[in-house]
Amino acid sequence: MERFHAFGVRTGVKILEALSREQAGPRRGARSWRVIAAVVVATWALVGRGSDVHSQSPVTIEIRDSKYLPPDITVPVGTTVRWTNRDEEIHTVTSSGGLFGSAGLDLGEDYGHTFTKAGVYPYTCELHPFMHGTVTVN
Ligand SMILES: [Cu+2]
Questions:
Q1: From the CA of 110, how far away is ligand 1's center (Å)?
Q2: What three-state secondary structure class fits 136?
Q3: Ligand 1 centre and the CA of 57: distance in Å?
Q4: pTM reported for the whole predicted model
Q5: What separation in angstroms does the CA of 109 have from each of 6, 14, 23, 63?
Q6: Number of Cβ within a 10 Å radius of residue 91
Q7: Chain segment 104-117, per-residue pLDDT in tens
Q8: Contact 32, 45 (CB under 8 A)
Q9: What is the enclosing helix (H) or strand (E) of 42?
């Protein structure tokens, strides 16, 4: 979500730069409506966009003793969930709907996915089908 905010800020800054060039030009009076429009857009880009996109704190799930801990979590839209493998054994995080999926994670390796839509997302380990977890996004 940090990225979206940065995009908004960059857009806002660009517009303000263009705006100050415009104002320095010789035909300033004739262009005042464009200046007003630019201010509106710049304000939207700087303030509106930045506050519309809430950044959520990331959530960590550990994989230990062939279990996802905690197995079921509920997070707000926009949350990045990160799974870290604490087992000597390789595990995966594989969405049942095919929406996300890790490679085989070795001890200490992790995998993250950002959930941008509300829904219920069950997942499993490709290597151990008895392992189950669910991420509920609302
Ligand atoms: Cu596994």
A1: 13
A2: strand
A3: 26
A4: 0.62
A5: 28, 39, 53, 10
A6: 27
A7: 999 999 999 999 99
A8: no
A9: helix 32-43
pLDDT, mean of residues 42-53: 47
Residue 24, H or E segment = helix 2-24
Centre of ligand 1 from the C-alpha of residue 77, in Å = 27
Question: Which of the four CATH numbers 3.40.50.410, 2.60.40.420, 1.20.920.10, 2.40.50.100 does domain 59-137 have?
Answer: 2.60.40.420
> Ligand 1 being an ion, which residues bring their Cβ within 5 A of it?
91, 125, 127-128
Query: Cα of 23 to ligand 1 centre, how many Å?
Result: 62
Domain segments of the chain: what residues? 2-52, 59-137
89 CA → ligand 1 middle, Å: 7
Quote the ligand 1 centre to 125 CA distance (angstroms): 5
